[in-house]
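During the no-cost extension, the postdoctoral fellow (Dr. R.K.) reprocessed legacy sequence entries with the updated structure-token encoder. One reprocessed record is reproduced below for audit purposes.
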Amino acid sequence: MSLSELPPGSIARIVSVEGGHGLVQKLSLMGLSEGKIVRTISAGPGPIVVQVERNTVGVGRGMARRLMVIRI
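Re-encoded structure tokens follow.
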């Protein structure tokens, strides 16, 4: 399942990033890389807002579709 499919309040682990080196690097700089635990804060229209570690990050829907997660 992708990050874009998670409802608000869900907790998940990132298992893979389906994209090229540039996308992987950009997401990594945002704190979103394989193995990280994320909590969905908002998934309404516009970017998806997640909490990763102690940071709140907004991720565009296109990028969120490329982040594969598993709910925990």
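Residues 12 and 72 are 5 Å apart (CA to CA). The longest strand covers residues 11-17. The remaining legacy entries will be reprocessed before the final report is submitted.
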